[in-house]
């Protein structure tokens, strides 16, 4: 799959990376639409700000420099579920406009009525 990855200030590249599979308690989303947030622009121009530096991986994703996948504002359809996820199916559409935070539960805005 293609992914915009941050390598450093002023250096974002579109790379081919392996498609991830959902782990326990996770869902996989086939992305229909994505956007660029102001925080993405700030990372590009002034970062790293929120991007985890090398040697300090993100507590949930494990991501760290030199190559971190960008993007946290997207919409799509659930395309896979990990163990323990039972309330979603492939017809469920939703949007995400948040980051990934180290909490036991992560609330996502879910809507069966979303228009894409």
Set out the fold topology:
Elements lengths: L1 E7 L2 E6 L10 E8 L3 H9 L21 E2 L3 E9 L11 E5 L19
Antiparallel strand pairs: 1-2, 1-4, 3-5, 5-6
Number of helices: 1
Question: How far apart are the first and last residues' alpha carbons, in Å?
Answer: 21 Å
Q: How many structural domains are formed by the residues?
A: 1
Class by SSE composition: mainly beta
The largest β sheet comes out as:
3 strands, antiparallel
Q: How would you write the strand order of the largest sheet?
A: 2-1-4
At the first level of CATH, what is the class? Answer: Alpha Beta
Report low-confidence residues grouped into runs of 5 or more: 100-116
Task: Briefly say what this structure is.
The protein is mainly β and 116 residues long.
